[in-house]
Amino acid sequence: MSAATRLDPDLSQDILVVRPSKWTLVVVVQLRSGTMRFNELRRNMGGVPQKSLSQTLRELERDGFVTRTAYATIPPRVDYDLTALGRELLDLADQFHLFAQRNREAVVEARRQFDALDIRPA
């Protein structure tokens, strides 16, 4: 492989890593229907802590999956929406959901077998 086509290992690791939080895919799926305000997202997501939602939105914005538009109104208004990259991540979330549905029984059985072994860490 030539030097021109070889990536710096540190750079390739950083580019290819999406650091999903517990709420990442939930936020992306919630934004499927379009622009939403912070509190609207929070209400729709049920038990998400405000801090966790703020961090997740900030990470999604930083990585280019979400846009944040702030309006100078009283009270302040902030809207969130998916970017083209975010819509691609939404496709991945949909595929993950289908995978989970298809393989639910197999995972339940694997957990049952694992738990029956009663292996405890040393």
- Residue stretches low in confidence (pLDDT < 50, at least 5 long) are 1-5
Say which CATH homologous superfamily is assigned: Winged helix-like DNA-binding domain superfamily/Winged helix DNA-binding domain
Number of helices: 5
Overall pLDDT score = 86
User: Quick one: overall form?
Assistant: elongated
What portion of residues belong to β-strands? 5-15%
Q: Summarize the main sheet.
A: 3 strands, antiparallel
Spatial strand arrangement across the major sheet: 1-3-2
CATH fold call: Arc Repressor Mutant, subunit A
Helix/sheet category: mainly alpha
Rg, Cα atoms, Å: 19 Å
| Helical content (DSSP H or I, runs of 4+) | 55-70%
The CATH level-2 architecture is identified as Orthogonal Bundle
Number of separate domains: 1
CATH class: Mainly Alpha
Order of helices and strands: HHEHHEEH
Pfam families: HxlR
Domain HTH hxlR-type: 8-108
GO molecular function: DNA binding
Keywords: DNA-binding, Transcription, Transcription regulation
Overview of this protein structure:
The protein has 5 helices and 3 strands; from the N terminus they run ααβααββα. It is mostly helical. The chain has a single domain, classed as Winged helix-like DNA-binding domain superfamily/Winged helix DNA-binding domain (Arc Repressor Mutant, subunit A). The chain has a 3-stranded antiparallel beta sheet with strand order 1-3-2. Mean pLDDT is 86; it is low at 1-5.
Topology:
Layout: H1 9-16, H2 24-30, E1 36-37, H3 38-44, H4 50-62, E2 66-71, E3 77-82, H5 84-117
Salient structural properties:
Arc Repressor Mutant, subunit A; mainly alpha; disordered N terminus; elongated; 122 residues
